[in-house]
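Supplementary Methods, section 5.1.

A reviewer requested that the exact input to the structure prediction be made available. We therefore reproduce it here, unchanged from the version used in the analyses.
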Amino acid sequence: MRFYGLAVAIAVISLGACACAGGEKKPADTTHVAVDTSAAPVTSPSTTPASTSSSGAVTMAPITGATKTVNMVGDAKGYRFEPANFTIKQGDGVKFVVVSGGPHNVAFDAATIPADTRAQLDANMGTDKMGELSSNMKMNPNESITVSFGKIKAGSYPYHCVPHLALNMKGVITVQ
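The structure derived from this sequence is encoded token-by-token as follows.
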């Protein structure tokens, strides 16, 4: 019991020290800053074949083909996608359905997604997301996440479940 009391006391002292260490910051002196407003903003050409709205934001491409169902399972055999590895065509959709063992989600590692496809795939995941290329968590059986592969170029797209990645819950979607 003394250990817990000591641990709590150390945590409180540490947090207090962190709060004090930041100290008060003085505003920066901006009286001698020169701003050149004559230069045009720098933009780089986009190589993304993404759908864009009138505001320039990438928009979700619709599913124009078949929709493949993938079950998200967690049971005595382990955590997995069923099937984990499969092939679809450009324009197809993938519906990930919680069967058991939630919470589950679907996430793509940005480092494995081609730069010219990343924004479109992110937009194709819809608005039910917790971050870039990562859906929100789904807890209950029959909850689902649908991802469009409309306007996604051919290639391999590794994906995983964030809370169960260490348990090898991952797969690869191959787009033809």
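Strands lie at 67-75, 78-82, 85-88, 93-98, 107-108, 129-131, 134-135, 144-148, 155-160, 170-175. These observations are discussed further in the main text.
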